Amino acid sequence: MLPIHLEKKFQLFNEYWTPKILGEFNGQLIKIAKLKGEFVWHSHEHEDELFFVVKGTLLMKYRNDKVLLNEGDLHIVPKGVDHYPVADKECWVMLIEPKGTSHTGTTQTEQSVNEADQEWI
Amino acid sequence: MLPIHLEKKFQLFNEYWTPKILGEFNGQLIKIAKLKGEFVWHSHEHEDELFFVVKGTLLMKYRNDKVLLNEGDLHIVPKGVDHYPVADKECWVMLIEPKGTSHTGTTQTEQSVNEADQEWI
Fold it and tell me: How far off is chain A from B115, nearest CA to CA, in Å?
């Protein structure tokens, strides 16, 4: 029964592309991550993914499209759609996705962090 | 495939306690509302409710507790728990809850707006 102060939670870690878990509701996990550079092409077969940009700018590339997300923007990546996040400078995001979603989807890379290894902060 | 700019969406309406729908993901609806004054005691039998304070301050009263939420705070109201939101001054919130959730829960009052009557903006 406590408030979760979003910005303060970002001060607790510095790693990039390493989601931290803030809370759970209705089977969805609220996560935050710091992003910098490029990630990997991936999709989530059964899970939509909500992004909210807290700081900076995130370019979400799709196979035939791209969406530039600025601070305060929300964006839903639909299930099954290949996407490739790029952050030229450090970007802070909140993500909401179902428990059990792999952040690299069906793609396994060195950047993959299993959800069981994702830390609650 | 467009960004949703959260703050701009609040400029599209002025009514209090009248949730507007911004998007849907994984069976959850993203809603925003302007709050001022007191609402009603209510609970949602099966649905957790995520609050994010975009502007202002929201006091969430519980039967034996209360939580003061400031700008940038997240808070989860667990399913089945009576709660009573109070905003002394105008407060802007984003809510995420499952499709089909009544915003006054099992309590029907003059302030109730059926989800079918909640507008997408």
Answer: 18
